[in-house]
Amino acid sequence: MDEHKKLTFGEYNEICSLLNIDPQTDISSVKFLDKGLNKQKMKAAYRNLTEKISNHIVFIFGAGPSLISSLNRIQPILENHHKKITIIAVDGATKALQDHNMSIDIIVTDLDGSINSIIEEHTKGAIVVIHAHGNNQDKINQIVSILDDSNVIGTSQSFETPKVKNLGGFSDGDRAVYLSANFQGKMIVLFAFDFGVIIGKYSKPEIFSEDIEASKEKLIKLDFAKKLLAKIPLKFPGIEILNCTPQGEKISNIRQIDFHQLEEILDKR
Description:
Elements: H1 9-19, H2 23-36, H3 39-53, E1 57-61, H4 67-81, E2 85-90, H5 93-99, E3 106-109, H6 115-123, E4 127-131, H7 137-142, H8 144-147, E5 152-155, E6 164-165, H9 172-182, E7 187-191, E8 198-199, E9 212-213, H10 216-235, E10 240-243, E11 255-256, H11 259-267
Parallel strand pairs: 1-2, 1-7, 2-3, 3-4, 4-5, 5-6, 7-10, 10-11
Antiparallel strand pairs: 8-9
Helix pairs in contact: 4-11, 9-10
């Protein structure tokens, strides 16, 4: 993968400065994740990931406050088009998609969401892309039982090992988009990428019972995520990216559409 299509060292250093991150804690977590992964099974997982994403329409469901309304709106559309669509759940959105009986192909997670839901979907065949950073080594330990299984991939935001790679992005949502772009998704559609000052309850479904106001740290992360997302169409000019979060904040360089427009686009594909 081209270096500029990863999270660059410049971007990473900026994040560390903004959020007071000690890079050594990230390195420690990456090494911990690396130890648990099975190299041969991981190679097969990458092949499966390529088959799921390359030249496919990819729907990515974030955990923003519009998630439930998005799922309600998208279900009849999926009934007509599901055969040509790959579905990615961003971390805590896994639980919401489960509750709506939606099939999940890929989960991108730093394990802030429901670990039980992630493990359950993995047993059904979902590819789980687990991200290691300095604050989640204890959570990686909670999911260590599946690390040696098939369909598990490890990612980092800087330091890499033979089994843990920097595939682009920083937060779960933008990492899911970079993942889809790096593996050549034909069209990428974002849902519940609201941004703004309200955090959806599914961002941490085992902790939050309702949507909450974003902390100062969370707002910094969201702002950086928007900047990273805005770079994707410039780095991957051949890939169409659409944002179907009608009431969410606009993302530079990414066209915002509503569900009626989405259905019209899909009917032509």
